[in-house]
Amino acid sequence: MEKNVATIENLNWSYRNKPLFTNLSTAFPKDAFISIIGPNGSGKTTLLRHFLRILPPNKGAILLEKGDLLAYSQRELAKYLSYVPQTSRLEYDFSVYECVAMGRYAHEKRLANLTMRDHKIIGEALEVVKLSHLKERVATELSGGEYQRVLIARALAQQSKVILLDEPVSHLDVHHQREILSLLSSLVKNRIATVVCVLHDLNAVSAFSDLVIMLDKGNIVAEGSVETVLTKERIEEVYKVEVDLHYAKDAKAPLVIPKWR
Fold first, then answer.
1. Strand positions, DSSP E, the chain
2. Degrees, nearest 5: CA angle 84-90-95
3. Which residues pair with 119 in a beta bridge?
4. Residue 184: CA atoms inside 13 Å, Cβ hemisphere, count?
5. In a structure prediction context, what are the per-residue pLDDT tens digits for the chain, which is 261 residues long?
């Protein structure tokens, strides 16, 4: 396996004196689509907040390429990690191009100082997400799927090695879910970035993941390939719902079918 882009070592964190993470340890391999899954309250978003330094650990560390994440300057960290939130709101009528250009803040102090190279990178990011034709459009006028692609393009313009995403498709229809997740998968396959994505839809996890990390009550209950983690017994135990697993011909990854009644 190639070098890891991040390693969590014995991470401890408590909320109002109630422990959530206790000696949490895992590794995030380079050039992989990594899905973090688990029921509500299991610690998925909380884990991402540790990467963003919103929540400092009580004990333990997150190690990046050059050492402890907490030792990075804000600009250094922005060059290494980018973040796409579950929901984002614009307060002003920025164009699509201006929104994507914000990803260059990690490299330039002001947008007024953007170089020809910066504009080239912004243009390439728009090309990747297929939004070049909408670059002059006001971002608040976009559909949900289009705006989500703007946020991903902004992360690409940031040129970080790792893109963190918190439920990036939860509010989109099935077509746009597949479109966004396919785009993220292509970033991994083309070695543009490692993707670390919190997801709820287990079938999306099954279809796109190289590595799955399943959390429950702050503990990693399983990690590994889709077929290793998404077993009938484990899903039923962790999610408290009966499921059937269906395997298409010659497929290793299962289709997860919940029993609604």
1. 4-15, 18-29, 33-37, 59-64, 67-68, 81-84, 162-166, 194-198, 211-216, 219-224, 243-246, 255-258
2. 95
3. none
4. 38
5. 458 999 999 999 998 889 999 999 999 999 999 999 999 999 999 999 999 999 999 999 999 999 999 999 998 999 999 999 876 666 678 999 999 999 998 776 655 678 899 999 999 999 999 999 999 999 888 888 898 899 999 999 999 999 999 999 888 889 989 999 999 999 999 999 999 999 999 999 999 999 999 999 999 999 999 999 999 999 999 999 999 999 888 778 899 999 988
**pTM to 2 decimals?**
0.92
User: Alpha-carbon distance 194 to 226, whole Å?
Assistant: 17
DSSP 110: -
Does residue 211 contact residue 35 with C-beta atoms inside 8 Å? yes
Strands of 107-248 (E only): list them.
162-166, 194-198, 211-216, 219-224, 243-246
Q: How far apart are CA 53 and CA 213, in angstroms?
A: 21
Tokens (6 digits) for 184: 């993220």
134 phi, psi to nearest 5 deg: -110, 15
